[in-house]
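The following block was generated as part of the benchmark described in Methods. Ligand: zinc ion.
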Amino acid sequence: VARPGTALTHRTLALAVDAVSWRVALQAVSAGGFTGWTRPTALVSPFPSLTHVAFARLFEPFGSGPANGYEVRYFDSDANRMAGGNPLTYRSDVPPWGELFDSPRHGVAAKAVNYVSSPRAVLAEFDAVAAEALESSRDVMLMYIGATDGVAHLYEDDGLVEVMLALDIRLAELQEQHRSRRGGPLRVVLFSDHGCGRAPVRYAESLRRLLGEAGLAVVERLDGPGDIVAPMFGIVNYGALFAGSPGAAASAAQAAASHPAVDLSAYAEEGGVIVLTCQGRARIEQREGPDGRWFRYAPSGADVLACADAARRLAETGRVDANGFAHEDDWFELTWQGSYPDPLRRLVDALTGDRVASRADVLLSLDPGRSWGWRSAYAGSRFRGGLKGTHGGLDRGSSLGFLMVNEDGADLPRAVPAHRALRGLIGDPRPSASQR
Ligand SMILES: [Zn+2]
């Protein structure tokens, strides 16, 4: 037990590195990095696989509020207009979990700058994190490095692996400094918010013409039952549509599913979520049980979520009830390594959950590498020979982040959903619960 005035011996730094995929973390370990750490756990991001959505879910156990929208600039469904920052005012917007982060919080805010960021920018952010970790009076510190996102979008996997290996060396140096200055070890929980694909980025033609052909009015604010608001963002392979009526949502999802860049579309209807591709559809239903949630997957025409195999194995092993529902943990176990990790829970949460305040009526997952484009983002990348990856989608590359701890004896699962990733692993990072 630490007496007043004695050094702390069990301090924890929980450090988020944006957009570092599980795949990249494994490569960094294979290249000789992170000895003495646990093997990287796959952290399954919520859908859409974006920073704000993921943080709202990761920090839910610590009382963090929902994200306002999917990105800093978003459609505010209460105000019925676009709201939030633009790329030049990101710095002035502090998201709901901002208070959980220790001071080098410019990272979350400066995302737009990251599109032209480099490995050097990552190390500069790390140096600020390290300085704060050595000085902070808190036992549980939550910090964030945002520049890795830019590296993930701009470089092949090798580039981000090198950055991770450089971070490993800096973390070892920080550990030594911490022992000498604070008199004890620093426990580090390193994790990412989501992954990133590695397909070269290709621009997707606007969806608006297809929506118009389906009889919908693509507008800036929702006034009539046939209206659709369709904000399109940067280097991301997801889409979010807001509809003037349930019928418009269903029509928009149908039209969007025929867009060549759209892998699947989804919307909620009474008692379930409907998923559409150009080849078929599926209905996802959930029921609450005393032991958690149970999901049923009913495809027709095609196995649109690639879950038929998991469903068969669940049935063969007696894990399906009389009505065809299986427990969320069982679905997770059998789908987290699939082409769409944990798709049933993630889609139901995305379309009926409360972690995004201005929730869309229709969500789209685009093929990896397909992006609606963002002029300024492309301008910064042109001289580097094009963008190397997207995230936001339901695909595996986007969906799998990682989690690891610098205690190789720690018992971490092979994979974990975001809402369970940090609970029990770090103490409460809220300022009121600490010494600051
Ligand atoms: Zn990104």
